[in-house]
């Protein structure tokens, strides 16, 4: 059962994607009710692309899919934390394992 979540004015909620084994943050993307339902139904992450205005399954073309192990939500019910098994080289479209590979300073 999906709890009542707080989506923004565009119907989106941020989803932080984390490696289920080592806790590394892999990426952040947006979901809406439908992409969350697809994620829960299939066991693989699906998101809403704000730039392309369409749904996408992570790794659909690259094969670097994210197998969902657990879905959590924060105390304000306005952010998701999705723990996954990352298949393939990584989560970032640049080829890096994580989207958070750069540092400031």
- Beta-strand residue percentage: 35-45%
The structural class is mainly beta
Number of helices: 1
Give average pLDDT, whole number.
96
Rg, rounded, reads 13 Å
Main sheet: strands, sense, barrel: 4 strands, mixed
Distance between the termini: 43 Å
Helix content: under 10%
Low-confidence stretches: none
Could you give the order of strands across the largest sheet?
2-1-6-5
Described by the principal axes of the CA atoms, the overall outline is globular
Explain this structure:
The protein has 105 residues and is mainly β. Helices cover 10% and strands 35% of the residues. Strands 2-1-6-5 form a four-stranded mixed sheet, with helices on one face. A hairpin with a 5-residue loop joins β1 and β2 (25-31). The longest helix has 10 residues, at 33-42. It is globular and about 35 Å long. The chain starts with 12 loop residues before the first strand and ends in a 19-residue tail after the last strand. The model has no long low-confidence stretch (mean pLDDT 96).
């Amino acid at each position: 059962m999906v709890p009542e979540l707080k989506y923004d004015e565009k119907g989106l909620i941020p989803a932080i994607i984390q490696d289920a084994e080592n806790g590394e943050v892999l990426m952040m993307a947006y979901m809406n009710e439908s992409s969350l339902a697809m994620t829960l139904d299939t066991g693989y992450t699906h998101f809403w692309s704000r730039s392309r205005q369409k749904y996408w399954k992570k790794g659909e073309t690259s094969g670097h899919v994210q197998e969902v192990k657990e879905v959590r939500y924060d105390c304000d019910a306005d952010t998701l934390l999705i723990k996954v098994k990352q298949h393939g080289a990584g989560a970032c479209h640049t080829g890096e394992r994580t989207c958070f590979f750069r540092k400031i300073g």
